[in-house]
Amino acid sequence: MTTTETEWAQWHAERERYFGDPLGWVSITGLHWLGEDFERVADLPGRWRADADAVHVDGVPGVERLEPVEGAPGLIVEDGERRIEVIRRTGSVALRVHDPASPRLAAYRGIPTYEPSETWVVTGTFTPYERPSKVTTGAVVDGLRHHHDAVGVVDFTLAGTPQRLVVFGRATGELHVLFTDATSGVTTHPGARSLSVAQPDSDGSVTLDFNRAANLPCSFTDFATCPVAPAVNRLEVAVEAGERLPR
């Protein structure tokens, strides 16, 4: 194997391990939105309600009030082997239930991919905006919104055709892309795949390795709240690289 193939294989193995975690994304068995009045939720312990400030819990020892942060990873309440994740999205609060005994987790067989190829590793040029721009996208759950800090665009050529993607920034200086292409909704998820891009060189050069185009959690579960790609990030070519729809 070449160095590129070895590094890709390591990346792929880590991705499969991540999604196969006993309390990870594939183990989720429910997504339950809370109202303002106390109510019992499915087979979960206690009663739950939410308002603009917090989640209030009655009947769960040691848990009375939780304050999940908008858009952030959830707060965890233990329930035997299960974990109840409390999240806030677009002002609303939901409970996600992670269960290591999930039938979907038991059926998990990894992540199908296209065969990696150097064809899909291209060099691009990053052009920063004068100041970050807020980009709002929809989500796989109707009514939810995601807000992203767009920091510039990357221009490159793919399949012989000039392409441009709006890119989001990370605190590390790395870039992050949400995109769709002609495979979306056919062999890949219709909403988006993601691509991490290393920090640009001093001249703005970046490498885009579409062999690492990655599924979002919503590819594996109906109980995720993932963003969809911005409309401007639709590539007209078929990017037959990276992760495909899980079986």
Protein model, in words:
The strands form 3 sheets. The chain has a 7-stranded antiparallel sheet with strand order 13-8-9-10-11-12-14, with no helix packed on it. The chain folds into 2 domains: 25-106, no CATH class; 112-233, no CATH class. It is globular and about 60 Å long. The model has no long low-confidence stretch (mean pLDDT 96). 9% of the residues lie in helices and 39% in strands. It is built from 2 helices and 14 strands, in the order αβββββββαβββββββ. The chain has helices spanning 3-19, 103-106, and strands spanning 28-33, 47-50, 55-60, 63-66, 75-79, 82-89, 92-98, 121-137, 146-158, 161-169, 175-179, 193-197, 205-209, 214-215. It is mostly beta strands.
